[in-house]
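Convert to structure. Protein one:
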Amino acid sequence: MTIQITIELPEGAFSALGSNPDSFAQQMRLAAAVKWYEVGMITQSKAAEIAGVSRHEFLEALLRFEVSPFQVTPEELAEELARE
């Protein structure tokens, strides 16, 4: 099941990315999913689902957006290294 959401945007929003409304909407879904993943709000699987792409495609998007696919805080990393 899907839900459709309507968002009002100024006409110039589409030209800013050189896209049409459908492409812009897809890009916005992907950008939101990447950001939510980056700040730890959602998992990779959920982000891919929200973005409407495969997990592999989502990982490629993380590379394009320069976001690490590994979401570990410095404290978590230090704890893990201390256990070894």
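Protein two, convert as well:
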Amino acid sequence: MNEVRTLLGGRGLVESPRWHGDRLYFSDWSVGEVVAVDPAGRSEVIARVASLPLCTAWLPDGRMVIVSSADGKLLRREGDGSLGTCADLGRPGWNDIVIDGRGNIYVNRGDFDPMAGEAFKPGSVSLVTQDGSVREVADDIAFPNGMAVTPDNSTLIVADSYRHSLLAFDIGADGGLSGRRVWADLGEGTPDGICVDAQNAVWYADVPGRCCVRVAEGGAVLDRVDLDRGGFACALGGPDGTTLFIVAAGWQGMTASELVTPGSGQVLATEVEVPGAGWP
């Protein structure tokens, strides 16, 4: 059984964990903060962006890119901590982001706002290139959530929460996507944030299932970490790459006045056997 320890607590809707350098970075959507925390639990706020969702990734040159969903922009955090525009996405409503080893930026969005009670409409994935141009490269994803790229830069994996599956796409030389397929049918699993390990298995966090699950291509369950609250996303990192970080909170529902129970957001950590690989 995986022993789970609490690295940080007292937070809100925590999402987008990313290991970079020697710290874990995550977003607290409830207060619009991007936070860095070290393995000892010492934390600091490194950016404030009034946006929900609020997800992050790193360019190959080491600069952070932040999805400012509310104003439909990608922001780039410079070395002095200032935020500038990396790309204009044209409209609000963007969700997760991943940047592959070549600098291709993938961002996804649902085409409806469940929090506002809008009627369902499938979402999409867009590619943002280094010159700031934006083009849609995949559509008909019921509710696109977490994304990850395999270590060889060949495959983009997308969590489709509403269809309870992980989708895979081949990444072309120009960053375009093809070869759409169901990478794993998760049955009743509802994937949110995901990450890839060195054996090309995927960990996915599950909010209604209150767990984090490791699956092989095809959907066979390889490992599972049970939680006492919703698991929103996960990332592999730490000194050896074998610490699984999970961000979790008490989910209250898409139409609740507060999406999660105030103060229930936690950053959790547990040790696993296979280190992380690929992106994020």
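The domain at 5-271 is CATH 2.120.10.30 (Neuraminidase). DSSP finds no helices and 24 strands in the chain.
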